[in-house]
Amino acid sequence: MTANRCWWSTTDPLMTTYHDTEWGSPVHDDQTLFEFLILEGAQAGLNWQIILNKRENYREAFDRFHPAKVANYTDAEVGELLNDSGIIRNRLKIHSAITNARGVLRIQEENGSLDAYLWKFVDGKPKLNTWEHSSDIPTMTTESRALSEALIERGFKFVGPTITYAFMQATGMVNDHLVSCYRHQELAEGNQR
């Protein structure tokens, strides 16, 4: 018997695996949170499948998303990234990754971890939504606007409220699986795969 999944995850095996094992699962690891922050920003104006297909290249190009390494990238390293066909070669997005890495280091210094800082925007636990149709799911929320404003105030780039909401969905800060999707209940019960 085939499990019911969210509509967007059935078009490509990589998307299905991502849906079944990651999307909506709560993330509390700073390095992974930074990775999603960069990848969601890279997605701006594009579709997630493009980014997902380049994810391993991004991990290689951006030192597996170690914020301390990315924060210290030189002009020469930026030049290498601009010539790397395995990633989105957008100068603004590449510079935003460096800027955001520096912001992450400041957040960690002030709050102990990026995790502690980000999760306070949902009171420390995933927000469980009960969407029945894809058209019910918003592109931004009060929480994503608050997170966006806070990050922008700290100098972060490519963190508008739509991007921060996609980030919140990806990292499990909100459970936006449709109620008909098997992952909705699984995550609601805390039985992550």
Q: What does this entry look like structurally?
A:
The protein is an all-alpha fold. It has one domain (8-188): Orthogonal Bundle (Endonuclease III, domain 1), CATH 1.10.340.30. The protein has helices spanning 13-21, 30-43, 48-61, 67-70, 75-82, 91-111, 114-119, 142-153, 161-170, 182-188, and strands at 127-128, 174-175. The protein has a two-stranded parallel ribbon with strand order 1-2. Helix 2 runs antiparallel to helix 6, helix 2 (30-43) crosses helix 9 and helix 8 (142-153) crosses helix 9. 35% of the residues are buried.
Q: What best-fitting shape do the alpha-carbon axes yield?
A: globular
- Count of domain modules: 1
Approximately what portion of the residues adopt beta-strand conformation? under 5%
- Supply the CATH superfamily name: Hypothetical protein, domain 2
The largest sheet is:
2 strands, parallel
Structural class: mainly alpha
Q: Distance between the terminal alpha carbons, to the nearest Å?
A: 18 Å
Q: Walk across the major sheet and give the strand order.
A: 1-2
Q: Averaged pLDDT, please?
A: 96
Q: Based on the coordinates given, report the CATH architecture.
A: Orthogonal Bundle
- C-alpha Rg, in Å? 16 Å
